[in-house]
């Protein structure tokens, strides 16, 4: 059985259901799926719809269209002063993804930087392609990680490795991430 919900190439995020698997696709490939407030609004709506579909959806996959999972927070959006509906909207959206009753799998290819790393960390499992690159660039851009990085990254990879990533902006390739 295949159902398509919000499968719209015009959407910033879309959902496609196949045989009990809901695939959420970040859909801004021209900017490496950079995360802006409008994308988060669409993402939150899809997460809510999946939570409401517990009888039909058993697994959730989150991925990026094109050649990257996501380059992270859209710095152009920040420069323009674009705002989310509330102060903690992005963080609460990532929490909602983490709290879904279904297992969530992040399918990562290419860039997974900063805010995208925070989004990925809300998944239960991560499947990384050979070209995946994980990096936290909060410090080099003088940004504060507000979406759960400081809690989730140390739990996932240990405090010392998390501090090294967060303090230095070190790029981690899939082989090292696996270790």
Tell me how many strands there are.
9
Helical stretch tally: 7
**Oligomeric state as shown:** single chain
Shape: globular
- Mean model confidence by pLDDT: 90
Helices and strands: which structural class?
A: alpha/beta
Strand content: 15-25%
- How far apart, in Å, are the first and last alpha carbons? 38 Å
Q: Roughly how many Å is the radius of gyration?
A: 15 Å
Poorly predicted runs are 1-5
**Could you give the order of the helices and strands?**
EEEHEHHEEHEEHHEH
How would a crystallographer describe the biggest sheet?
6 strands, mixed
Please bin the fraction of helical residues.
25-40%
Q: Record the strand order, biggest sheet.
A: 1-2-3-4-5-7
Structure description:
This protein is an alpha/beta fold and 179 residues long. Helix content is 34%, strand content 22%. The protein contains seven helices and nine strands. The chain has helices at residues 37-52, 75-79, 89-98, 115-120, 149-157, 159-168, 174-178; strands at 2-5, 13-18, 21-26, 59-64, 104-108, 111-113, 125-128, 133-135, 171-172. Strands 1-2-3-4-5-7 form a six-stranded mixed beta sheet, with helices on one face. It has a three-stranded mixed beta sheet with strand order 6-8-9. Helix 1 links the parallel strand 3 and strand 4. Helix 1 runs parallel beside helix 3 and helix 5 (149-157) packs across helix 6 (159-168). The longest helix is centred in the N-terminal third of the chain and has 16 residues, at 37-52. The protein is globular, with a radius of gyration of 15 Å. The termini are far apart. Residues 1-5 have low confidence and may be disordered.
